[in-house]
Amino acid sequence: MSLTIEVYPRVHMGLISMHEGGPRRNGGLGFSIAAPSALLKFEPADDFSLIDNRKVPMGEPERRAVLARLRLVSGRFPFRSSVSITIEGDMPTHFGMGSGTAIRLACLEGAFLSEGLTYNSADVVMASGRGGTSGVGISTYFSGGFVFDLGIASEKAAGFHPSSRGNVMSLPLLLKQTNLPRWPLGICIPRACKPKSQAEEIEFFASSAPIDACSSYEAAYAAVFGVLTSVLEQDYEAFTSAINLMQGTKWKRLEAEQYGSGLERARSSLRRLGADCVGMSSLGPALYFFAPGERLQEINDLQAELDCEVLLTTPNNSGRKVVEHQC
Length: 327
Fold this sequence. Notes:
Elements: E1 2-7, E2 10-17, E3 24-32, E4 38-45, E5 49-52, H1 60-76, E6 82-89, H2 99-115, H3 121-128, H4 136-143, E7 146-149, E8 152-153, E9 174-178, E10 185-190, H5 198-208, H6 213-232, H7 236-246, H8 250-257, H9 260-272, E11 277-280, E12 287-290, H10 293-301, H11 303-306, E13 308-313, E14 321-325
Parallel strand pairs: 5-6
Antiparallel strand pairs: 1-4, 1-14, 2-3, 3-7, 3-8, 4-6, 7-9, 10-12, 10-13, 11-12
C-alpha cells in the first residue's frame, strides 16, 4: 500500500499571552486556507528518506530533523519497516504559512498509516513535538477551519520559543474551532522581504519576549471581542476591522518590524488598492488580505507593480486529505 497526503497552509493571526506572570502562555488564533498546498507521497522502504521537490524546500537541518523524528517514533511504536517520502507542490517554507508543522504531522501520520497502526490526532501531535507555542497549526492540519486556543499553563512552559523549539509537555487548550465563512482572500509575499531561517526565528523570540502584560491584554481583547466574535457572528466588516486592529498590537508590531520598509510598502499598497484588511501571518513575511472578489482580481492583476507574488485562495474547512493506493 502506498498513499498520498495533501496538506494546506494556515494563516496565524497572532500570539496572545506573551508576558511573564500570567496563568497561561502563548495562545493564538488563525485559520486554514486552500492554497498553496503540498503533496506528500509515501512508499514502503527499507529506511526512512525524504526528498523535498518544492520550489522553496525545507533546509537541510529541517530535513534531518524530520528524519530524526521519524526514526525516534519508529522506535517507540511497533514499526516493521520504513517509508520514503517525496514532497511536491507550491507551499513554501519559512514564509509564515505553517509548512513545517503541516509537513512534520503528515510525515508521521503517513508513517502510522503505512504501518497500519491505530492512532488518534493527539498521538500524531505528541509524536511530532509541535504545538508547544500555538495550537493553530496542529488543529487546522486535521480539521481546517478557524481555531482559537488558550495556550498552555505557564508552569508547563519553558521560556518563549517558536513552534520549532516549543517544549510539548501538554497540548494547548482549544477554546473554539469552527468553519470560517468562505470570504475571498489573497496571499501576498513581498519580493523585497527575505524569509527568516529557523535560527533567526529562535533569535527573534529570545530578543523580543516577554512583553509587558498590558500589551498582552490588548491583544487578547482584540482577539476575543474582535476576531472571535466576528467569526461566530459571520460579520465580515467586524472581522476585517479586527484584523486591522490586531496589526497594531505589540507582539504583531515586533514581528512585522523585522522586515522594515519593504513589508510596510506592500501592506500600504494593498490597502490603497482596496483590500479591506491586511495582516501578516505568523513571523511572515507572507501577508493575507480580504476583499470582494472583483477587487481581489484587480490586485492579482497588479502583482508585478506591487513587486509581490500574489495568490488568490479561500478558507479551507476540511483539513488534510489522505488517499491510499494499492501497489
